[in-house]
Design a protein that fits this description.
Elements: E1 2-11, E2 15-25, E3 30-34, H1 41-48, E4 56-61, E5 64-65, H2 74-79, E6 81-84, H3 96-105, H4 111-124, H5 140-152, E7 158-162, H6 170-185, E8 189-193, H7 197-203, E9 206-211, E10 214-219, H8 229-234
Parallel strand pairs: 3-8, 3-9, 6-7, 7-8
Antiparallel strand pairs: 1-2, 1-4, 4-5, 9-10
Helix pairs in contact: 3-4, 3-5, 4-5, 5-6
């Protein structure tokens, strides 16, 4: 589904965010991008959403060369994705319901279908009772769940998450990852940039470790018992910052 062929990303002042990266992610995989801040994790996600173009190499999504997409085609590309940002990016002058429904309205769906699907996904994330509240009335964890609901409302084939639990407590972090796991179980490909080592090691999913803009290691999925992850996470402070 996703393929990077010798991809490099160079920003101004000769900052090399990615260096000749080769990777392949199949449909239905759940993959973590791990590594220190500045390693290049967010750059990989930005290339997939076409926030940025590769400086060198080719980025393919379902066989489509994203570097060759016309700017007018980018909104349609993003409508096929569920994108979860660390800073939520909610509409704070709109209700929780409207924040989630917005992602469906851009698809031109009938009003009845929008209402049904919005309420259904809010039920899944445990926020149906707060549908009419404005986001500033919610906790940080609840706001992140709104962001997750907005991303999953369209039942996307690809979910991209950039540090989705970076500033959340362990209990809320686990709830967020459970939602991502369920999306993956329904068939979505999920790619998560995360510092959360406790969760990464507990879930047993494939891990691409990035360092200095290069893939340092590619650890395949392994079956693990995740029941002890909470105790480990309780001992670690929340971590923020861009990848």
């Amino acid at each position: 589904m996703i393929e990077f062929r010798s991809v490099s990303k160079i920003y101004e002042e000769d900052v090399h965010a990615l260096r000749s990266v080769d990777l392949s992610i199949g449909r239905g995989e759940f993959v973590f991008l791990s590594g220190p801040s500045g390693a290049g994790k967010s750059s990989i996600l930005d290339l997939l959403t076409r926030e940025e173009k590769a400086s060198k190499g080719t980025v393919l999504l379902e066989g489509v060369d994203l570097g060759r997409l016309h700017d007018s085609q980018v909104p349609a590309l993003r409508r096929r994705m569920g994108i979860i940002f660390q800073d939520f990016r909610l509409l704070y002058d709109r209700s929780v319901f409207d924040n989630v429904a917005f992602s469906l309205r851009v698809l031109g769906l009938p009003l009845g279908e929008i209402k049904r699907d919005t309420l259904a996904v809010l039920e899944k994330v445990g926020l149906a009772s707060k549908a009419l509240l404005k986001p500033h009335k919610l906790s940080g964890g609840e706001q992140q769940r709104v962001a997750v609901a907005r991303a999953l409302a369209r039942d996307p084939d690809l979910v991209l998450a950039d540090e989705p639990t970076g500033n959340l407590d362990p209990e809320t972090s686990w709830d967020i990852f459970q939602l991502l796991l369920k999306a993956n179980e329904r068939g979505a490909t999920v790619v998560v940039a995360s510092h959360n080592q406790a969760v990464i090691h507990s879930l047993g999913k494939r891990v691409l470790r990035i360092r200095g803009g290069e893939i340092e290691s590619d650890q395949p999925s392994v079956a693990v018992d995740a029941s002890a992850w909470r105790a480990e996470e309780e001992m670690m402070p929340p971590q923020g910052g861009k990848a």
